[in-house]
Design brief:
The complex is a heterodimer.
Chain A lengths: L11 H4 L10 E2 L3 E10 L2 E8 L8 E8 L5 H20 L8 E7 L2 E7 L3 E3 H7 L6 H19 L6 E2 L8 E4 L4 E3 L6 E2 L26 H17 L16 H4 L5 H10 L11 H15 L20 E6 L9 E3 L2 E5 L4 E6 L5 E6 L9 E2 L3 E5 L4 E6 L5 E6 L9 E3 L2 E5 L4 E6 L5 E6 L9 E3 L2 E5 L5 E5 L4 E5 L11 E3 L2 E5 L4 E6 L5 E6 L9 E3 L2 E5 L4 E6 L5 E6 L9 E3 L2 E5 L4 E6 L5 E6 L9 E3 L2 E5 L4 E6 L1
Antiparallel strand pairs in A: 1-2, 2-3, 3-4, 4-6, 5-6, 7-9, 8-11, 9-10, 12-43, 13-14, 14-15, 15-16, 17-18, 18-19, 19-20, 21-22, 22-23, 23-24, 25-26, 26-27, 27-28, 29-30, 30-31, 31-32, 33-34, 34-35, 35-36, 37-38, 38-39, 39-40, 41-42, 42-43
Helix pairs in contact in A: 4-5, 4-8, 5-7, 7-8
Chain B lengths: L2 H7 L31 E7 L9 E8 L10 E10 L4 H22 L5 H4 L5 H19 L4 E10 L2 E7 L3 E6 L2 E4 L6 H7 L5 H6 L19 E6 L4 E6 L1 H4 L4 H10 L3 H14 L6 E8 L3
Helix pairs in contact in B: 2-4, 8-9
Chain lengths: ~625, ~290
């Protein structure tokens, strides 16, 4: 196969074949080889001593090009390339570019004698330190690099395109100054000239793969280098040209938006969209540095402008205590339970009070309804069936513990869990018990019924799958904390959150764990699915979008407090409340904030959408209806 | 086939049968979409192709199917690898990678199915698949410097298959007359295509279409694509090297899949089609039929 892989360069595997000089060898009776500095591709670099200076130790770098070509044309081409590098370097004069002293050919090898730079390249530096490099340090280097690129790009008679900007080609010398090394592939630039693909994957601009080299390409590679230094994400291990999928501030929030914006411009896919010159990029970096105080210390205080309540409130209704749970909207009526022990029925259009039904405990569970009756579960241990029209009691069912699990209707029965550690299944017409299933702990998760199976989470940290014959099909016991979150079932897979900080994907037939996504805090939020993604909130204050098939994070949106409620999807928006008192509306695909609506208390329930209105309750005692 | 036959056969062996298997003729009367069987059926076929002297591809296929009270669920493991690198390092890389993945997943995952209680306490399946590919990567890095390979592995358990993937071999789901590519090619041209820089047609003929940006054996830290997909009910899982998908059009693949009596016949026919079209590269095909639920 002719296939070549353009991946991480693996220099060490080749060096065994290269004819290396032993320390102690003298070249041209002048350069005493001291040590091998580095090797890669077809060349090696040695540290050597110039013996023309007998009284001082003058260190030089000797670059040896090993010519292994057997084909004479190829052989000559390699020598020509080498001499071109030497000639080119000899014409350059810039403090960031190493000086050239000499070049010669000996047997089959050619040598270039250069200024020895005592320092470290940025790739080595990055390897040595923990965490990302400091922004101010990186920005200062970037400004120096723009200077040297500007010098090269304006070189006369022809501009020089470096073509291989990357951390390992940039050294920081012992004075802390930047030096650009390895001009092996830099060449005189003639506009429009096509060449073969050279360069280092990950840093090289897209157009370089078409054989085009331009100043804008060097700026892209500089942008890629800065991205790597600030995020520690090696672009050689990522798909090419995927920087926009790894925003700098997502990986390193300490970087300023200003610096990030400059780097993003340098990394634009289309060369036209990048800076017009290295000079322009330098100006942008300086402007950003001034803005963020990297160059000038007193920071100018600017108030962050956030999108505010761009959403219209249709009505709100005040109850007598906190609303912690979720409303149900059915046939133009909003039903919502409250910690004042009442179930409220409100006109969905106007918010007008219709009736209330008093239980003897707080209500956190979401009611359900078949149109005729509304079923509401209370912390007073009971499930009530009341008429949808007037709230008149039809029947009562007693469990042995507070009920926090939301009842669901299926197959003529109501399914719900209770803190009495049982799953209860109740005949929906007369309230008689049809089945009680005892498990290892309280059930606060909402049961999911599919086919002849019921799935539910348990505070014991188990997720159960029973069939209607009350036979346990499987139990998922790999979670480490309570599963309060309610499972959802998509294409044979169950997804649910857990207080062990994880979102799980489990195969529904047999309970095999497929993947686990770790968040920053425990979650009791229930997931929702749309367009191949799972959305879920977490105690770490974030709303996450995770790819369903792989468990990879697509985006997250940070709120200012825990997200205990569950998100819903309507059209292309995610709606989710937070304990920071706000209801959030996010763009489903990007996670960008569309609007944020502030209430007077935490929002811990799940909103619901009906008739283009968004309904939810808040701990400020109110039920809200907003225009979506 | 002898060495001489291969040399002199080059270019004129327009219709070459696959290396290993004699095939049954097509039954044209087979109706599209008809259920082949109520069991899972598997076929696999491989050919060096017309233009190449060596086969650098490797494949592994295993199916477990049982019935009866408390039967172990159906399981399977299907792996295709397409090696690269000079001095035979390509074929070594693909061979040891396939072996490493098969060994790891058979031992740590499939055999544990028979110890049912223990099984659920294992690592997430995606982590097991990811580790298997990373182990294969480590073996190639240490044992075959300069060699590399693509690798696409599907671990099927019950109704789901978890796929680990690096490189430009492909997994397809063939259902309802459609071929859906499940994997993402880690090739330069695919990336340019994703970015809208090349059309699919331009990518198919691009001189650098063989350039990969990710492969097994190309560095210590390999990031593997791992995802889970429902098995294609009343359809096929197809895993193949670019010697097939780069040569035989999708419509032809679909036609052959649905007009063959058995996936084995389909695999042989697909290999023959690739060779008829010039056989520019090694060809490896695994095809699994899944009955309707």
């Amino acid at each position: 196969m002719k296939r070549t892989t353009k991946a991480l360069s693996d220099a060490t595997s080749e060096t065994a074949q290269l004819g290396q000089l032993e320390p102690g060898v003298t070249l041209q009776e002048r350069y005493l080889v001291l040590a091998l500095q580095g090797a890669g591709g077809m060349s090696s670099v040695y540290r050597a001593r110039d013996l023309h200076f007998p009284n001082v130790t003058k260190a030089v770098a000797v670059k040896e090009m090993i010519n292994m070509a057997t084909d004479p044309t190829m052989h000559d081409m390699i020598v020509r390339n080498f001499e071109r590098e030497a000639d080119l370097l000899a014409t350059l004069s810039h403090p960031a570019i190493p000086r050239i002293y000499d070049y010669f050919t000996h047997e089959n090898n050619s040598y270039l004698v250069m200024e020895f730079i005592d320092g470290k390249d940025l790739e080595a530096l990055l390897r040595e330190i923990e965490g990302a490099l400091a922004e101010d340090q990186v920005v200062n280097w970037a400004i120096e690099l723009c200077d040297v690129l500007f010098y090269l790009h304006n070189h006369k008679p022809q501009p020089v395109i470096f073509r291989d900007v990357k951390p390992s080609n940039i050294m920081v010398d012992n004075h802390g100054s930047i030096r650009l090394i390895d001009f092996g592939i830099a060449r005189n630039f003639q506009p429009g000239q096509k060449g073969t693909m050279i360069g280092t994957d990950g840093y090289a601009p897209p157009e370089q793969y078409r054989g085009e080299a331009s100043p804008a390409g060097d700026l892209y590679a500089l942008g890629a280098t800065l991205h790597h230094l600030l995020t520690r994400k090696d672009p050689r291990a990522e798909p090419p040209f995927s920087f926009s999928e790894r925003p700098i501030r997502k990986l390193n929030q300490s970087v300023s938006t200003e610096t990030e914006a400059v780097i993003n411009t340098a990394l634009a896919y289309d060369p036209q969209d990048r800076f017009s010159s290295a000079e322009a990029m330098k100006s942008a970096l300086m402007a950003a540095a001034k803005e963020t105080g990297i160059l000038v210390s007193p920071r100018t205080a600017t108030t962050a402008i956030r999108p505010r309540n761009e959403v219209q409130e249709v009505w709100s209704f005040e109850c007598e205590d906190e609303i912690r749970g979720s409303p149900l909207v059915a046939k133009g009526v909003v039903y919502v339970g409250c910690y004042d022990n009442n179930l409220y029925a409100l006109n969905a259009e106007t918010g007008e009070f219709l009736w209330k039904f008093a239980t003897e405990g707080g209500i956190v569970a979401k009611p359900c309804s078949d149109g005729e009756l509304v079923y509401v579960a209370s912390e007073d241990t009971r499930l009530y069936a009341v008429s949808a029209e007037r709230g008149a009691l039809a029947w009562t069912y007693y469990s042995a513990g507070p009920i926090r699990s939301s009842p669901v209707i299926s197959e003529g029965h109501i399914f719900f869990g209770s803190d009495d550690a049982r799953l209860h299944v109740v005949n929906m017409f007369n309230g008689s018990a049809a089945w009680k299933q005892e498990v290892a702990g309280p059930i606060r998760s909402t049961p999911l019924i599919s086919g002849d199976r019921v799935y539910f989470g348990c505070e014991s940290s188990d997720l159960y799958c029973y069939d209607f014959k009350s036979e346990m099909k499987w139990r998922f016991g790999k979670a480490k904390r309570a599963i309060t979150s309610s499972p959802i079932l998509i294409e044979g897979m169950l997804y649910f959150g857990c207080k062990d900080w994880s979102l799980y994907a489990v195969e529904a037939e047999a309970g095999w764990q497929i993947w686990k996504f770790r968040m920053g805090q425990p979650t009791i939020s229930s997931p929702v699915f749309a367009e191949n993604r799972i959305y879920i909130g977490s105690g770490d204050g974030r709303i996450y979008a995770v790819e369903a098939k792989s468990g990879r994070e697509i985006w997250h949106h940070q709120t200012e407090h825990q997200v205990n409620g569950s998100p819903i999807i309507f059209e292309d928006s995610v709606y989710c409340g937070s304990v920071d008192n706000s209801m959030y509306c996010l763009d489903m695909r990007s996670g960008r904030l569309r609007w944020q609506f502030q209430t007077g208390g935490p929002i811990t329930g799940t909103p619901t959408v009906a008739n283009n209105r968004l309904y939810f309750g808040s701990h400020d005692h109110r039920v809200y209806a907003l225009l979506t | 086939m002898t060495f001489l036959q291969r040399i002199f056969g080059r270019g004129q062996s327009a219709v070459q049968s696959p290396d290993r298997i004699e095939t049954a003729p097509l039954d044209p009367s087979t109706i599209e979409g008809a259920a082949l069987s109520d069991r899972i059926l598997v076929g696999a076929s491989q050919s060096t192709g017309v233009e190449r002297a060596h086969n650098e591809d490797a494949l592994f296929s295993l199916i477990g199917s049982s019935s009866g009270e408390a039967a172990v669920p159906d399981f399977g493991l299907f792996v295709v690898a397409d090696g690269m690198g000079g001095h035979r390092s390509g074929e070594v890389a693909s061979a040891i990678s396939v072996r490493a993945v098969a060994q790891r997943l058979a031992k740590d995952t499939l055999l544990r199915l028979f110890e049912s209680d223990d099984f659920l306490d294992g690592q997430p399946l995606q982590d097991q698949v990811r580790k298997a590919l990373q182990e294969a990567n480590n073996s190639v890095v240490s044992r075959v410097p300069g060699g590399g390979t693509t690798l696409t592995a599907a671990l099927m358990l019950g109704n789901q298959m978890t796929i680990g993937h690096v490189g430009d071999s492909r997994a397809y789901a063939l259902t309802n007359g459609q071929a859906k590519v499940l994997t993402r090619d880690h090739s330069l041209v695919k990336r340019l295509e994703e970015l809208g820089q090349l059309t699919e047609a331009e990518a198919a003929t691009h001189p650098q279409r063989n350039v990969l940006y990710k492969a097994i054996g190309q560095g210590a830290n390999l990031e593997v694509d791992v995802f889970t997909h429902p098995v294609p009910r009343n359809g096929f899982l197809l895993i193949c090297s670019d010697g097939l998908w780069g040569v035989v059009p999708e419509a032809e693949i679909l036609r052959i899949a649905w007009s063959s009596e058995h996936p084995q016949a389909a695999c042989d026919e697909l290999v023959r089609a690739a060779n008829s079209a010039g056989g520019p590269d090694n060809i490896t095909v695994i095809m699994v039929y899944f009955p309707p639920a």
